[in-house]
Write a structure and sequence with these properties.
about 120 residues, alpha+beta, two-stranded antiparallel ribbon, 4 strands
Length: about 120
């Protein structure tokens, strides 16, 4: 028998109901994603994707704005938030915030991860 064969009656994938899927999409659009064009107020992903709302691209942000954006995103994570970084192990929310604040090697790695994630989210429609 081939390892990839499935037993009779075994589900091939899990299905979420439509309302759960829509709710998670709404939550994704409410996450912080950049700054408004004035450079003072953080913009949500929904605002970044809306062509009628003037926002800054991630490449226009200053280093301080990038740090602040990532810190605010981390603060909104649940208390049990963890991130694994090769060579550094599992980093909890408190340590992740501290590392970004001091702009350590780990903090810069977390910022790069967030930057790449935000680029992909902003491009998705």
């Amino acid at each position: 028998m081939n390892k990839s064969s499935k037993s009779a009656g075994q589900p091939t994938r899990r299905h979420r109901n439509r309302s759960q899927s829509l709710d998670s999409k709404k939550a994704d659009l409410n996450q912080l994603a950049s700054y408004h064009i004035d450079g003072q107020k953080i913009a949500t992903l929904h605002e970044v994707r809306d062509p009628s709302v003037p926002t800054m691209s991630l490449f226009e942000l200053t280093e301080d704005q990038r740090v602040n954006l990532v810190l605010e995103r981390l603060r909104k994570e649940p208390d049990n938030f963890r991130i694994g970084i090769i060579g550094h192990g599992i980093i909890d929310k408190t340590r992740a915030i501290a590392e970004v604040q001091v702009r350590s090697r780990i903090g810069r790695t977390i910022m790069e991860i967030e930057h790449n994630l935000l680029l992909r989210l902003a491009e998705a429609s």
